[in-house]
Structure formats: structure tokens, C-alpha cells
Amino acid sequence: GVEARIRAKGEAIREGKAAGNPPSDADVNALLSLKHEYLQLTGDYYVAPGERRQHRGQRALRVDPLAPPLPPSAFPPYAPRGYFRFEVVHRSRKPGSRARVGRIVTPHGVIDTPCFVPVGTNGALKGVPHDLARAAGMQLMFCNTYHLLVHPGPDVVGRAGGLHRFMHHPTDLPLITDSGGFQVFSLADANAEEEGPELKSRRKRNRDAETGEGTVLDVSERGVRFRSYLDQREIFLSPESTVDAQKRFGADIIVPLDELPPYHVTPERLDHSVRLSHRWMARSLRRHLQDPRGQAMYGVVHGGTDRDLRRLSAAYLASLPFDGFAIGGSLGQDRAEMLDLLDYLVPLLPADKPNHLLGIADDESAAKVVPLGVDTFDSCNPTRLARHGTLYTSAGPIRIAQRRHEDDHGPVDPSVETIPHSRAYLHHLFRQHEPNYVTLASVHNIAFMQAMTKRMREQILRDEL
Question: Which of the following is catalytic: 252, 258, 323, 378?
Fold first, then answer.
């Protein structure tokens, strides 16, 4: 094994030194490559017998930023899962459309695609009980590993029996959790070369104990160390530990650790980031396959707006036994750039597996990405906008605080059945800061998005979309 090869190479170098022959660069690089291979296979640094393990898991290993990830031969070939499958029900025959209707079958229920996925950051949709979300048409809910790591922690959730039991979530409604990487790297500083407009929002400054918020401390080949925004304690997140946490959470679909660079980075920095994400995701997949526990794992395609890197990422991840694929990283600075990128990228993904667009699911974007072949998409925007007074309607978003709604006793959207309450009533609740407003408005926007995707499925079946 690799451990024996490390010892043999180290012994050869020591013998050469004793004989007055210092090691060549090739010998040193060969030893470093073996130690990197050990890290990829085990998730930890190699420590020789009798060597004292240093604080925080050994000194950082020098790794070539272009070092390859684990090869496909390091994994078993993909085999159908008894607990997870994707069925394509119909592909649109409309010229120029790649839209499709599908079914994702999970241990906790079926997801009809295309599907909008609401985000319950802390294991809850803010102000929306599970039964109301279900009544609004929710079929899949997204929870954030980063926030659940910080509080209450995977051990607490694990002792409860997983997120479904901890949340008292309906057992026939699936869950998806991310790796925590997006939130961690959203806290990182964007330097002068990296700042710029971006479709996905990011925090532009580091957070620290003085502000009472989190901060990234360091990033290494082994993983990322950050400070909790809640109590400033240090937390280490590795490709293996995020999988271990998501095993405790027990979601139906889980995601490997990846790095998220901002929109404006140099081509070299983006290339290094994609390759680091590949090495991390391969390690996460390896840990996941050791104990699948009825969970599916989606690989995350990266590369920013660089088409060559996107193609490279899609090809490598498609060669590994992932159950589906998520589209992550920066998608551009506006919707037009995102749509142009997706038009190129989606056909590169395996057609027999589901795909998921991470963090983009406003009503206008959803209507545009489904014809490109996107299956599922998540965003906190519909519920966040609702809380702040913006409601979706077929005629475009409305600001419920405006006085013109004060005496409007009609439904929020006459064309879409969502909640039975009038615009006037929601205007009143919002202006009076009534907590019930958050619930009703959020349910309306969720129901609107679910009704929209249901209508899309019907249009695809008729080859109209």
C-alpha cells in the first residue's frame, strides 16, 4: 500500500543522506506525491511510526496546485442503487428545448422534476411549519450543513435520529444537505483582484470576533478551518468530516466539499480551485461510499464562467460513481451570462442522472433554466423576499407595503391559487409587523413557485416548453 511505499522511499532518502548523497528534487517530489496520495486516501497527513503528531493535524503538506485527484480506477463502477433512482418520464419534442419531466425516487419519497427546492437554512423554513410547506406543494427541502454544524451540531441531530426526526419533518418528504463549503467560503475576503459583481451573493469582508461573526482562518489541502459566527470557536471542515456530519443529518441527497472562489479571479487561481475541488470531492465520495446509508451524493461541477474548466470538471466528475450532479460555483454576473453558460454546460452532464442548479431559483430564472434541461433548483430568495414584502404574481412581483394594496380585497394572484387571504389583509399585517405576515407571505411565494414548476411539467408533457 501507499504507507509502505512512503516508508520505503523515506528509508532510501535517509540511507542516501547517511552515505553523503543528498536527495534529489525528484526524490523529494516523489515522497511528497506519495504523502499526498496517502492524504487523498485517508483524509489525514501521514505520520511515521514514532513521529509526534503536531497540533491541528500536522503541518500543511506542500501540494502542487495542479496535482490530479484520485483516478476513476480508485472507485467502484457505478451501479444502480436500490434506494435511489432517476427516471426520465418525457423529453420535450419542442424544437430547441432540452426540458424534461422526471422522477427522483428517494427513501423518503418521490420528487417530480422540474422542481423548486425551498431552503430551510437551520433546518426550518423561516415562519413556515412543515405541514403548510407540504400543502404549498413542497417536495424537497434544502438544509445547510454549515449552520447545522455550528448549532446544534451533528451529534445532537444524530442522537435524535437524523434531521427528519429532529425536525419532525414528514417522512415522505425528502431532504438535501450541502457540504457547508458555500457558506464557509462566502466568509472569505475577496481581495482587490477578486472583487466584482456576481449573480450569487457573497459577503465581501472577513468576519471576526469583534463583529460577533464567523471568519475563515486557513485553507489547506486537508480542508478549511474557520471560526463559528455563533461563539467564535474554531471548526475544521474536511472532505471527510462534512460527509460524516451529513451521515448524522441523514438527508436523502448529500454534497461533497468544494471550494467557491468569487467571480473575478485570475484564470490560474480558478484552475487551481477547480482542481482542489476535484481532489476534495473525490475524497468525500470515497468516504461516502464506505457507508452509503441509503443516501445519494451529487458531484458539484465547477469552473466559473471558463468553458474549458467547466468541460474538464463535468468530464472528471462524470467518470466517478456519483448519483447526480449539481452545478455550483460562480455562474456569472447576471442572468444572461448564467443562461449562456448553462446552455453550454447542461448537455455535458450525464443524461441518465439528475442535475441540480445550486442557489438560483427566482421565478424569472426558473422559467429560463428549465428549457435548458435543469431538473431541480434551490434558493432562499422566494421566502426571503416574502419576508421583506415582495410577493410573486403572474403579472410580476408586487410590493405589498404600497398603499395601493390597502383596500384591495382580491387574492394575491388571481391566476394562481396559493393562500385565501387578500392583498389588503397582507398589507395590513405587513404594515403592523404582525408575525403571521411572514408565514402567509412565505407560503404564498412557495406555492407560487411550486405551481409554476407544476405548470412547466404539464407544458413539457405537451411539448410546449
Answer: 378
